[in-house]
Design a protein that fits this description.
- The chain is mostly helical and 412 residues long.
- The chain has a single domain, classed as Growth Hormone, Chain: A.
- Helix content is 75%, strand content 0%.
- The chain is built from 17 helices and no strands.
- Helix 2 packs parallel to helix 4.
Length: 412
Amino acid sequence: MQTLTPPAPVSYRPLFSLPVIVSALGFFVDVYDLLIFSIVRVPSLQSFGLSEEDVSRSGTLILNCQQAGLMLGGILWGIWGDKRGRLAVLFGSIITYSLANIACGFVQDIHTYALLRFIAGIGLSGEIGAAITLVAELLPKQIRGYGTAMVAGIGYLGAGVAYLTVEWFSWRTAFFVGGGMGLALLLLRIRVFESGIFRNLKTQAVERGNYLTLLTSRKALIKYSRCIAVGVPTWFVVGILGTFGNEFGKALGVTEPVQAGRCVTLIYLGFAAGDLLSGPFSQWLQSRRKAIAFLLLSSAALSVVCLSGLVQTATALYGVYALLGFCTGYIALYLTTIAEQYGTNLRATATTSASSVVRGSVILMTLTFQSLKPSIGVLATAAILGVCSYGLALWALSRMEETYGKDMEFVE
């Protein structure tokens, strides 16, 4: 009679290894520096003597410059991550965005502000993709979802610190704090090691980091496009509902002034809680797709509540934003799914670039928002963008590969 060998117990100690902790802290600084403009957008532009309408238009321009930098940088850092290593990206990106954020503290005009946010965007685009790729490759597959959830859950708390910094200090000081934290983190990064999967790849005669590979065949392009589409609702929530929260408050008839910076902060704090729980949720379901689908549908339902006119007070609206962030907190799970779909020679390229193209999608959304709202209104414009974002994401998710428990040591 054959005796079945019980499976070896899974150790959770790797979750607290230095690479995981430093990746989480790196994403914490990344979120701080990424969100700081959305939080200080109104007070910083008002300090230049702009009217309310000019604040909206100039803020959109500067945000779009940042997002364009994210798109370009995501492709460049992704390629660099597969050619030179995940750590090379983590070092290069943090130096770039830290120096750019310090420079933002000295800005005196709109055009310089936009240029510096573009440079900061290039730097910021490398952090999360490289961090998730590194952690996913370092951890055993049985606890991979927990590790990437930790990185994102801790990282998104950077939004709360950014908001408190702006509450306590001037908007210029807030930029100095973000840049200083990034430079300080470089000291910790010195002790982080590269993943063994990537080190093994370097000994093989295989092409690495060819971005065109994702685009040059119909099958590859469809797969890559699906990866992008699933993430688009995250930036509908942040880039439209959160960033223009003050305008939604007025359109909904909320009598108290609604602070856009607080809306964005609450969404990101919701992200932190949602991402911490979405990883274990997918482990329990033994499915990435089911967990993401549940969160997407919940997020869509809360977006309807946000735009429906049921919310009549600023406090209630802030509460909806926090819940909306929680239900849209599938970002780490989403990036883990992308990393699991691609071989080691294209993993950083696909994960980093896809997440940055998602961030860049806010350019199209904000331009549409600004062009349509004068004719059909703030709420109707947002509703159209929401239907397109969630519909596309759910359609793409239904056709994606289930990657739960997949072995990541393979090449394309």
